[in-house]
Amino acid sequence: MASNMRIPDPLNLIGGQWVPPRSGKTLEVVSPIDGEVFTRIADSGAEDIDAAVAAARSAFEEGEWSRLTAAERGRLLLRFSQAILDNAEELAQLETRDNGKPIAQSRADMTVTARYFEFYGGGADKVHGDVIPFLNGYNVQMTREPHGVTGHIIPWNYPAQMFGRSVAAALAMGNAAVMKPAEDACLSVLRLGEIANAILPPGALNIVAGRGEVAGKALSQHRGIDFISFTGSPEVGQMIQIEAARNFIGCTLELGGKSPQIVFEDADLDAALPVLANAIIQNGGQTCSAGARVLVQRSIYDSLMARLKERFEAVEASPSEEGAILGPLISARQKRRVEGYIDNADAPLVARGRVAEHAPKGGYYVAPALFGPVAPDARIAQEEVFGPVLVAIPFDTEAEAIRIANGTEYGLVAGIWTRDGGRQHRVAKAMRCGQVFVNGYGAGGGVELPFGGIRKSGHGREKGFEALYEFSTIKTIVINHG
Ligand code: NAD
Distance between terminal CA atoms of the chain? Predict the structure, then answer.
């Protein structure tokens, strides 16, 4: 319950110890619910990243962590998963205060965070190598080994979930991790670090809070890391990849999206309608895989839009209490950015929701907006808004729908609504993205499901078994036994 919420101190987790940043500097933490400063976090620098990377290196090469079997690592992650569930309510309250998201969403996020450690805890001892037929007299083994020290940089939109998604697979493979969470919301990550620290050997998991351009940059440039996993904006992702190239290491980039949901005239609209709306309202539209464009076959355009209009007008942005579905956005900056897109949209506004009267005036509330008909190449149909803004684009034929759906720089997720089995397969195959849902849409859902994008949405896959492969490297051992 809220009264039991433990707000972490402005410290970093390095080598199993909670330590202040070397500079002693801290950053204010503001709650998006009311715009008030309620605590502080470490404002870490390059020297703190150095210490964390050194601690991870030591854990990976000679510490207790390095001596565990895969099964033992898996068991620790399963214990951590259970500990997350045991503390889920407290963690959810903290997440909501820090990030502003509705409490129901925070509770769901904690279940998913625990699930990451359950899934990868179970997977730790199931990553097998191979034996490759070769010349007579040779035995060739292919083994999968951890990279070593992995760097992890995550955004503020799902702090706990992103922590689980990025770190659980890396740890399951035996890497030692250095995590730099986002300065806009990272308290749940620090609290998860406290819980993990009672279970994992020192140095396996290190968490350094601070600003992107300082601590994040220092981590991405650090010569002591062997791999980096980044989730965030395309602009920063590009810099991360350049740094990885300078460092001769690999990286995964999970960036943004402008994901389409295509609604054909034979779709079950009663089933589609709540999902179409929720895919952009969930988490205030601050979801990389938000369903931000709805492509509607022209014959049903007017009727579907009338129903979507009704839904959008009924949505109220409110403080993140019980029953809330749309909370505040993360920051004043994000609110200005989203309002800028709404105010300058190059398309007709169809519907606008409301901001609740009791919402604190200092909070970052934005009423949701529905636009249509929107030209496929309009700015609001091409750029990621990262807010509760849905654009509707009419189309006539299947071929046109495919062209529009694939017609942005992004390629993360797509949704297809049709009862026609042939069309389901054809259109799914034609989508240029990393995940396709047919007659459903799971923005962010499914720990088991490999997830990631192409082009400006990034590359590499997290989630699913694939992530264990991302966080490992292959070694081929050729033995001449005569
Ligand atoms: P951001 O790129 O500004 O920040 C993400 C992280 O990178 C933060 O931890 C930040 O501190 C750090 N960072 C910032 N500048 C850095 C630098 N120069 N060097 C190293 N690290 C740096 O993004 P944001 O504004 O926090 O998040 C919003 C964006 O993230 C959106 O574009 C969204 O689509 C994307 N996102 C993608 C996914 C995904 O899985 N594909 C998930 C969540 C968010």
Answer: 67
